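A student in our group prepared the protein record below, which I am reviewing. This is what I was given:
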Amino acid sequence: MRSRYSNLERPGLDEAGLREALCSPRGPFSRLDLLEATGSTNTDLAGHATEEPAAWPDLSVLTAEEQTAGRGRMERTWTAPERSSLIVSVLLRPHNSEGRPLPTQSYAWMSLLAALALSESIEERTEISPQLKWPNDVHVDGRKLAGVLAQLVPGANGEPPAVVVGTGVNVSLTDQELPVPTATSLLLEYAATTDRNVLLKAYLRRLEAHYREFTAVDGDASRPWRDGTSLLTRVSARMATLGQDVQADLPNGSIITGRAMNLDPHGALVVRDEDGERHTVSAGDVVHLRPLTR
C-alpha cells in the first residue's frame, strides 16, 4: 500500500535497542527479530515454532515494518503502509510456575489477555483510553484502533500446543490511509506519542507481566492475581461490548440478538435475548458481532 509519507517521517524500529531493552539478560523475552516486510508475522512465527521449536522458545517475538498479507478473524485481510503500524507476533508456550502446561481450554483467553495489555499500555503512553470490543478488537469511541489474532501451533515430540498472538495497531495512518471508515489511528486520536519503539516496548512489557500472572494461576481467568484483580475482572471492566444490545451473526446464517451480559469462564460472550434466554457464543462461533440498532 502506497503512502504520501516518506520513511523519514515514519522512523523505523530500532532492532538493537529493542533487543537490549526487552531480551535476556535485561528483559524477559527470549528473542526478538525484525523483518523489513513479510506476508504475515503470525504465519512466519507459527512456521518457525513448528520447524525449529528449540530455537523459538516461550516469549519469542517477531515484528515487521510492513505486512502485505496480514489476516484477522474469519480470514479477513489487513494491510497498511510501511512503518505506519505496530505489527508484532509473540510465541507463547504456557506453563505454570511449577512447570506444568496450562490446560488448553485456557488458551481461549490469550487474545483477550493481549488486547487488555495493549489497551493498558496505549493508555499509559498516549493518554488515550481504548476499550475492548469482543472478541479481539481494541477501539477508541467505537472506532477500531487495533486487532488481535491468536492461533494454535501444534506441539512437537508430545509437547502441548503453543500459541502465537499477533497484534496490529494503526499508529500513524491518515484519514486517507485507513482500511475502512470505521477505523482510527493513534495519530488521528492526537496521541501523546506515535513513536513505535516506545509503544512496542510498553506493550510487550505489559503483555509479559499479564502472561506471568495468568500462568501463575494455571490459566484460570477468575482466580486473583497478586493485586487482587483477575483477568476476567480486568477484561470485563474495559469491555465496551458488555451492557450493549448486540447482534451476533453465526456461520450457519442464524442470528442472535440481545443484551451482552458478561463473559463466561472461557472468555465466551453471554447474550440474553428478549425472552430472557441466555446464549453463550465463543469467538469461533461468531462471524460478526455488532451493536444492535433498533
User: Anything to note?
Assistant: Residues 117 and 209 are 9 Å apart (CA to CA). The first strand starts at residue 31 and ends at 35. Confidence is low (pLDDT under 50) at residues 1-8. The two ends are 37 Å apart (CA to CA).
